[in-house]
Amino acid sequence: MRLHVGAIPEIADLPVEDGWVKLREPPLWVVRWILALPLSLVLALVSAVSVMRYTEITAEGLNGGALIAVYVATIAVHELVHAAIHPDRGLSDRTVLGLWPSRLVFFAHYEGPRTKSNFTLGIIAPFLVLTILPLMVAHQFGWNSWILGAVIILNGSASSADLLGFLIALFGLPGSSTVQNRGWHSYWRCAAGSISSNNSLQPIARDDARSG
Known about the structure:
This protein has 212 residues and is an alpha+beta fold. The chain is 49% helix and 18% strand. It has helices at residues 28-54, 64-84, 116-141, 146-158, 160-172, 194-197; strands at 2-5, 21-22, 95-100, 105-110, 114-115, 177-182, 185-190, 205-211. Helix 1 (28-54) packs antiparallel against helix 4 (146-158) and helix 3 (116-141) crosses helix 5 (160-172).
């Protein structure tokens, strides 16, 4: 696993003659400000209402300093969950975790082509693992720690761009495709023979990018 600070890395063009097709995706500013920001607020509200309605979690013991620490830890674990879904489970140099300071964006990359199923699962996994699963566990076992509630709500809010990316990939990529990223943009081509014929490209694939 490698760390990267700066813009999402660019790679050489993915040639059309090699079968690569650019996925239709909104520009970064549209995703971040027009779509992800309002969705982030909606997800925070839905997560908070779900915690209050379906669990015994309260705000007892909550304080500002601890809440900031929980937020930072939640974002870090969020990215590690993305990495854990990579074909190498995040254990090789092909996994890259990054921060784009000027855009306040955290991201996870995988250097290499991926199947659509692995790509889409990698995008949505942190929302399932850090929001949906803890909510179910807290409901089932009556856990009432405010820290758990904070993780559910903060991660839910931070997953807005992930959910948008998941929907775009789910409906925009053919089921048998291989996925590749060039900077912010996603490319795909038919899976047959694509991974074995693409070893020389050495590209970088994006799992997610989110504000905050």
